[in-house]
Amino acid sequence: MTIRLAAVQPRSHFAADEAENLDDALRWLDRAHAHGADLVLFPEGYPGPTNPANDYDALTPLSHKARSLGLHVVAGGLEARDDGRHHVVLHLIDDTGAVAGTYRRTSPVGPYIYRDIDAWNFDYAESDAEPVVFDTRLGRIGLLVCSEVYIPELARGLALGGADVILCPAGGAINELLATWRTIVWARAIENLVYTAAVQNLYDDDEEGVGIVAAPERVLAESPHEGLLVADLDLERLAFLREREERIELPKPYSTIPGVVRWRRPSLYGGLVSELE
Q1: How many domains does the chain have?
Q2: Angle between helices 59-69 and 20-34 (to 10 degrees)
């Protein structure tokens, strides 16, 4: 089975104009459908709202559009708490228009950077719920938010939970971190034998984006610009890499180390479950 992923890296509106992201998002879904997409990824907080000063419902129109086009869609926003803080959320909408799952950012423990940028300007609260893998008609999908891709344990947990694809949409303002960000997105694919993808909001005219779709063996699509990254994710190739054992054979029938997720010795990993002093 092959999944066609369309990852959207949009020119994003913010402040009083943020609601315009919804109309843009619906048009992006039309474009993705025209490219034969099965799964569409939007950035963190998109189409929003991602600023509590703005109040509009993006989820309902997205769900209706996903159903009409037969698309799975990952979209971002906020979820208010009783204490005035907000969870950063990703919603996975399936091709029936139902919300198949919601992921709430877990890391780091708040407060975090969301008061630093006027486009966001909210008090962040971390979730204590363990990230889970969502079963869909397309395969098993794991979600992480933005810089959570830098935490190897989160992606490994999703891979051990059976994820075929790990999507880690970013917020924006990555700038000087772009080189390491792109590298780490591909590294998560290599070490976990999954497909990974990231895109971000482009708030400034001269801003470069992190847009990337990666397989364990190569980067499938990459662009710093506004637009749509389209890539085919071959689940049969993924199964081959997971089931195969590494051997000395030339030429090698793979471009990464196969079966590496099985190289686990939990008895050596005590430090991973210990709190830092």
Answers
A1: 1
A2: 10
